[in-house]
Specification:
The chain has about 450 residues and is an alpha+beta fold. The chain has 12 helices and 27 strands. It has 2 domains: about 5-130, SH3 type barrels (Roll); about 135-435, Fumarylacetoacetase-like, C-terminal domain (Fumarylacetoacetate hydrolase, domain 2, Alpha-Beta Complex).
């Protein structure tokens, strides 16, 4: 597990004044990585670190500031815009560079003059996917989501017998991953008509899914599983993830092989990768209910039981086209917490590689929909509207069972605790556009 060190000191402040504001998602205790270019430019994408409302351009920073030889070597792939290459260096590299970045960005830092010219306002940049994603796997760790959805289709057996024994997942499509801020068209697909006959057209039951995504850092050779003792060091950091879903297409196509076209038309991720080290103060015990089966040995460890879970608050916000036209803010629909997930990130990494599958730097693992245990904590409209039977009434009088064209869904996440600086992930947002075609 990542250790608590001086970079987590809540008393630390930065010479970047906006990072010291209580409401900032990116204080000096966070320092997430992202890939960007200046708006309106055609410059190559480069890697930066979010600090307050600014981005520290690591290409410029490497050139203009003083670094040790080891730090300059670690900065090289980032200066070249290649986060994957830095991910491949593993946890030791992250720890060393985090300490160096924390040092130069602290209040009173000797390199403020050199680095101040390496900042660019976040409002003046365009964010891209933070890295190249070779493979994307989506899991199903939200037991409250799995139970709620199961009750809609299998009232007598909401959870299938394997759910509490094995982390369920499926392989998604990396080509349709996009960074926050994009728009996507309503997908077309085959659905089951009222009389039972299939029909083709735009989905009528478009939904979001509130998830967290974990990027793999150093991978493993083919045929060599990652053990639980190794797994924590193998994930690089987290983003928010929206696994958009066409529920009517999904209901018709998913048997017997699982999700396909209902899921692969768009997936949105937040552009800033919050590292495992930044999240260290928010680790919490992984606890199973006494009557639930305990994980099999290959998915168990004392470290995972002691602090394998993460205390991350997650939210879904909705802004309709009418709200935008009237300059009305987005409305929060729900809130849940990642600590309620049935499986930890280490267990996902260990299980994914348990058959010898070779994970690679930049591979993305989705958590599955993170719903809470209480009514109103559903991480999808499918849950909040009881399968479309109970419409949500918004503050402006509009109603929703599923998403309409022009709707913008925003996922937000943050960590906070007594004696700790609040850190955030930035928005994960996208807007639904009308279908193209019949």
């Amino acid at each position: 597990m990542s250790a608590i060190d001086t970079t987590h000191n809540p008393a630390l402040t930065s010479w970047v004044a906006s990072a010291n504001a209580a409401e900032s998602e990116f204080p000096i205790q966070n320092l997430p990585f992202g890939r960007f270019r200046r708006a309106g430019s055609v410059e190559p994408l480069r890697i930066g670190v979010a600090i307050g409302d600014q981005v520290l351009d690591l290409r410029e920073a490497r050139e203009h500031a003083r670094w040790s030889d080891a730090e300059r070597e670690l900065l090289l792939p980032l200066a070249l815009g290649d986060l994957n290459a830095f991910m491949a260096l593993g946890k030791p590299a992250r720890v060393v560079l985090r300490a160096a970045l924390s040092q130069v960005l602290r209040e009173g830092g000797e390199q403020q003059a050199a680095l101040s010219g390496c900042l660019v306002a976040q409002a003046d940049v365009v964010m891209a996917m933070p890295c190249s994603v070779g493979d994307y796997t989506d899991f199903y760790t939200g037991i409250h989501h799995a139970t709620a959805v199961g009750k809609l289709f299998r009232p007598d057996q909401p959870l299938l017998p394997n759910y509490k024994w094995v982390p369920i997942g499926y392989h998604g499509r990396s080509s349709s991953l996009r960074a926050s801020g994009h728009a996507f068209v309503r997908p077309l697909g085959q659905t089951q008509g009222e009389a039972g006959e299939p029909q083709f057209g735009p989905t009528r039951r478009l939904d979001y899914e509130l998830e967290v995504g974990a990027f793999i850092g150093a991978g493993n050779p083919l045929g060599e599983p990652i053990t639980m003792a190794q797994a924590e060091a193998r994930w690089f950091g987290l983003v928010l993830l929206n696994d958009w879903s066409a529920r009517d297409i999904q209901g018709w196509e998913y048997q017997p092989l699982g999700p396909f076209l209902a899921k692969n038309f768009a997936t949105t991720v937040s552009p800033w990768v919050v590292t495992a080290e930044a999240l260290a103060p928010f680790r919490v015990p992984f606890v199973r209910e006494a009557h639930d089966p305990q994980p099999l040995p290959y998915l168990d460890s004392s470290a995972n039981r002691e602090h394998g879970a993460l205390d991350i608050w997650l939210e879904v916000w909705l802004q309709t086209a009418q709200m935008r036209e009237r300059n009305q803010p987005a409305q929060r629909l729900m809130q849940s917490n990642l600590r309620d997930a049935y499986w930890t990130l280490a267990q996902l990494v260990a299980h994914h590689s348990s058959n010898g599958c070779n994970l690679q730097p930049g591979d993305l693992l989705g958590s599955g929909t993170q719903s809470g245990p209480d009514e109103g904590q559903g991480g999808s409209l499918l849950e909040l509207t009881h399968g479309g039977k109970k419409a949500i009434v918004l503050a402006n009088g509009e109603t929703r069972t599923f998403l309409q064209d022009g709707d913008t869904v925003i996922l937000r996440g943050f960590c906070e605790g007594d004696g700790r600086r609040r850190i955030g992930f930035g928005d994960c947002a996208a807007t639904v556009q009308a279908a193209v075609g019949p």
